[in-house]
Amino acid sequence: xxxxxxxxxxxxxxxxxxxxxxxxxxxxxxxxxxxxxxxxxxxxxxxxxxxxxxxxxxxxxxxxxxxxxxxxxxxxxxxxxxxxxxxxxxxxxxxxxxxxxxxxxxxxxxxxxxxxxxxxxxxxxxxxxxxxxxxxxxxxxxxxxxxxxxxxxxxxxxxxxxxxxxxxxxxxxxxxxxxxxxxxxxxxxxxxxxxxxxxxxxxxxxxxxxxxxxxxxxxxxxxxxxxxxxxxxxxxxxxxxxxxxx
Length: 246
Fold this sequence. Notes:
By secondary structure, this protein is of the alpha/beta class. It has a domain at 2-173: Ribonuclease H-like superfamily/Ribonuclease H (Nucleotidyltransferase, domain 5), CATH 3.30.420.10. Helices cover 34% and strands 13% of the residues. Strands 1, 2, 3, 4, 5 and 6 form a six-stranded mixed β-sheet that branches. β5, α4 (91-103) and β6 form a beta-alpha-beta unit. The longest helix has 18 residues, at 211-228. It is elongated and about 90 Å long. The two termini are 47 Å apart.
């Protein structure tokens, strides 16, 4: 399975007002693992930033002045994404801008959905966490994804973060050691479950109470016996003490 995590940065929030893409960042996943084959381009927009948009990205027209225009990278970009599943957070935004950029170049490029399938992680998150905030930052916090290095919005950085969020959001048993063993079939034709290997487990630590902890425990048991006549702990059979491991 080939998936492309995609993000864009733009000069404003609405392509219908003539705003343009200034950055495209893509991370390729093969069988849900990063391949290292990413796509990243800054683009010269030939228009001004809307108020506030420049502060969000930290990009300036001076920085973008010598960067290629979208039409100069479009063939490379489409070759990169062709046939993949695009994974985008709030996909309508990015797809709308990309379709607008393609439409400016004539009918020969068509629309994005004619080349790829699109999965919207915002819709996925809203289904899993209804009624909660499901921004990328909120999902990072909820799913334990580190985004402490995200000071500004950047297309490639956000795509890399979204890749981690997507994996965490969609992880199932196959991600944690319960997937089928490659090449094995069950009696009914289905895949066998991977055999559990106890040798893979780390040694479990043994906790031995200190004399003061034992004294406090006995005092609490005496208090419970005085108040209730007995303590449930009295019904637990005594175990032989185990020496602490070095």
